[in-house]
Each structure stands twice: as C-alpha cells, then as structure tokens.
Amino acid sequence: MSKLLLTISYLGTRYAGWQVQPNADTVQAELCRAADSVFGCRCLVTGCSRTDAGVHAREFLCTVGFDGTPNAVPRDRVPAALNTVLPDDISVLTCGECEDGFHPRYGIRGKEYVYLLHNSHIRDPFLEGRAYRFPSPLDADAMAECARELIGYHDFAAFMAAGSKIEDTRRTVFDFTVTREGDLVSFTVSADGFLYNMVRIMVGTLIDAGLGKKNAGDLRRILEEGDRANAGPTVPACGLYLNRILKGDDTP
Amino acid sequence: MSKLLLTISYLGTRYAGWQVQPNADTVQAELCRAADSVFGCRCLVTGCSRTDAGVHAREFLCTVGFDGTPNAVPRDRVPAALNTVLPDDISVLTCGECEDGFHPRYGIRGKEYVYLLHNSHIRDPFLEGRAYRFPSPLDADAMAECARELIGYHDFAAFMAAGSKIEDTRRTVFDFTVTREGDLVSFTVSADGFLYNMVRIMVGTLIDAGLGKKNAGDLRRILEEGDRANAGPTVPACGLYLNRILKGDDTP
Lengths: 252, 252
Description:
Chain A has helices spanning 27-39, 78-85, 140-149, 198-210, 216-225, and strands at 3-10, 42-47, 56-67, 90-98, 110-118, 132-133, 152-155, 170-181, 184-191, 240-246. With 252 residues, the first copy, chain A, is an alpha+beta fold.
C-alpha cells in the first residue's frame, strides 16, 4: 500500500519542535500516537522539516506509512478522524496519497517561512507567543531593501547557527519581502532549502538594518565573507511560521 | 487626587471574566494586584463592563482610584510599570486621568463588540479559543440582512439570558454588520448598552438565519414578541471580543 500524505497546521508554543525526542512533547510524537490509534497499527510519520521548539506551521507536509495492516478509513474522513484524537493545537487539514518512495523533505521544490514581528513598546496579549515583540522603531523599507540582497543563489554560511555540520551551505532564496501593517512587520522568505536557524539569523540581521546599523552593502559583504559573526542575532522562535510548501511538478 | 483612566486589552481564555469573585482568577483581580504593587497603596479598579468567562477585550476602559497615597509614577510610565507585573495575557495600552466622579460604565456613549466565527469543518490551531468553530456552511449575506433588523431603538428582551433582573430592556443598536473573509465570519455590533448575553444570543439567532431557518420577518417578530424562547441559542464565549469603546463628548 502507498503512504498517506497529510498537510497539517500547528501552534508550536507547547512543543519541543517537530521531531520525536525523549522526555519532551513534540508534534511528530502527537501525530504518531494519533495515527496509531486511528489506524490500529504502528504508523511511521515523516515530516518535511524539523521545526524548532516554539516554531509554528500554517502548512506542513508529512507522510504516514504503515507497519502492519491499517484500519480502513475513507481518505476524506482521515483529517476529522485524526483531529478528534489530536490536541487542539495541531490540526490535519487535508489527506492525500503518495508513492512509498516519496519523502516530504526532498520531494518538494521548497518552503516559505513567515516571521512576525510586533514593533511596539506595549505588549499585545493576542500576539504573545505568536510574534516577537521588538520595542525600538524599525524602518521597514530599509529592511526590505536589504532583504532583496539575500534573494538568489548564494552561500549562506554566515546565516547558519554555529556548530552545524552541513557541508554545502549554498541555497537559492526565491523571494524575500518585508512588509508593515501598523505595528506588525512580516518577513516572508521562500527558498529551496534552509540552513539551521537561517531564517531567524536573516531576520536578526535585517533588524540591524531596520535600526540603521547595516545597509545593503553590508549584507553583500556578510554573504561574501561567510562568517556567522558578521550577521545579526538569532531572533526568538515564537515569531516563526512555516507558511507554505512550494510544490514541484512531481509533488503529489 | 483624580483617578487614572486606563485602556487595557486581554485574552480572556484563562479568566472567569472581568469581575472579582472568590476562588477564581479574574482580570479585575489581576489589575488590582498589579496596581497595589506599582502604586504601593490599596487601589480601587472599576471597569466599563463585566465580561463573562472566556470573553476577550481588545479595548476595555477602567479607572484606578487610590485608598491612600500612591507612589509617584509619571503618567506615561504607568502602562509599562503595570505590564511588568501583569500576566502576559493582559496589557495596559494607555493611561490618562479622569474626574473622581467618572464611571467607565456610564461615562461612555457605548461599546462595540465583535464576534468571530470560524465557518469550517476543520479546526484551525491558531483560532482555538479565539473564534467559535461552526461546521455547517452559513450564508453571510442572509445573516447581514437579518442583522440590519436589529439596528435601532428596540426592546431586546428576547435577546437577554433568562433570569436577568434588568427591568428596562430597551437599547439602541447603532450598527450591526456581518462580513466574511474566507472561512472567518465577523459579526460587529455597537450599541449604547447590552443586556446579559445579548451579543451571544443575537449571533446565535443570526446563525439560524445563515442556515436558512430564519428570515428578516422572523427577526422582526422575535423583537416584537420579546420572548427569549423565539431567539436562537447562546453561542460560546470564546468568539466574543469587546472591541472598542464609543466615547461621548464628555469622556476623558
């Protein structure tokens, strides 16, 4: 039998990230438990990304394979069946099917992340845990201009957390926009892949630009020199959303 | 000394409503505790409304009076000072001043409530506790048409929770709109005052209209007959927001 292909959404606040780990609650662990219970056999859940603790997902792709014979659940009933056993902060949006060989991490064209920043010295109770509050005024146009420097095929070594063991640090950023609506600043970036903490370091660097501490030339130099020390701080996880999966021609 | 006039905002999920009560956490109790601590004397906090358990406020007006001599805190530092001791789901947005005789319930022209409904059979983790999920498709135009019947000076007895002891059940609804954006339906109603559960019963009745079970003529008859039994169900608190205070000419 082929595997199920799910799109899910989750509020990451309560979780130690996507991936199963001992002594911590994770989204993958919740999905495994829910799938085991609905399908009545051991299920193997594979995700498109390993989001960090506190990171959210509006659209996340994962597959469910079966180690045994699953209960017969009509495809269109799978989301509701899983949602009744999942906690309220995780939801299965759709259920399709894919070949056994499909891997949700490598079978896609890329991903789009959104980082939400609340640019205010006053807390908004409705944004707590859902946006990073930054009190000093930020120039969104300056940040947007610097974000454009990051678009394209580059070596993003400067934007990778120290200690990562990835060897090829080149990626293609398809688009990177910064927009402001009132106090809310949205950073939207899509790429064929992301290094560890790449979005959070890029946003931290753009904040420096929004404060007038860095300009487009600095961004080009940071990319060229590839030194993490030149880039800005890693912003908190709470503002980060895996927003959209960019599908390729062969994605189911 | 005159009193302080605060606008605050809160996520009501964790609270048994605004008003202090024994053995339950309330927004008023949190504000009293915070004000006592910041001003170093016993503070009297009075609100513009008694929101129910689970109801939210984007803009809520309250006064802080002092039973003693308060610490000198510059007015513009009051929000930040209170916010450092308040929990994350309550925030003081602004601080002004008002006459001792001003009551935030009677000194205003009215209030605007918003009710958020998520019209979907699939849960959205980001709307849990913040919108009421209703799975059956609703006709927003039909609801908007019926909402217009509620605008004006009417006896709203049919839209008051049974057991209320209010004698004069006449109120003026200034405006009532229903709009849809994707799966999210917003009911926005402003009035000079609201009876107990009035918004939640009006929305429950409009849902019947959205399902095709009631029309504009039915709404007129429900108003005229004044019988709670004719109106629709009381929808859950989680979708309700005190959205805005309508200030009169003499509101500070």
